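Input record (Table S2, row 135):
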Amino acid sequence: MADVDKLIHAALEAQTKAYAPYSRHPVGAALLTTSGVVVSGCNVENAAYPLSFCAEANAIGNMIMQGENQIAHVVIAGPGTHVCTPCGGCRQQIREFAGASGVSVTIVDHKGTVLLETTSAELLPHSFGPENLSE
Ligand code: THU
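Output record (tetrahydrodeoxyuridine complex):
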């Protein structure tokens, strides 16, 4: 199976685990790391709404727990047929581990149909990252 198909499958699988009783907007995210490891995450909401976690953020937490910190490709699976583009906070979180030049970001619907192929640099132009910090 091609890497992207594996990632789409992992994102859809993660989406089935989403805890989204308040928004009813389940999201799954899968990351391929530069060393070929696939990690995933889903959104986890809370009755205190602002405490909810996005799927991408949870996938990144899982990546760090696997000892990985360089993203090669991101797949996000949203519900329905609207393009579930990552929120601003997730764009920044992805950027931290994707570098300034960016990585592929593929967004699929709940059936795995590709709705958008873009890059993290396109989603967050002129981004601020580790290289922008003064010594
Ligand atoms: N959500 C994500 O998981 N990722 C995003 O990038 C956009 C939004 C979640 C957060 C919340 O649980 C639900 O989708 C509705 O905003």
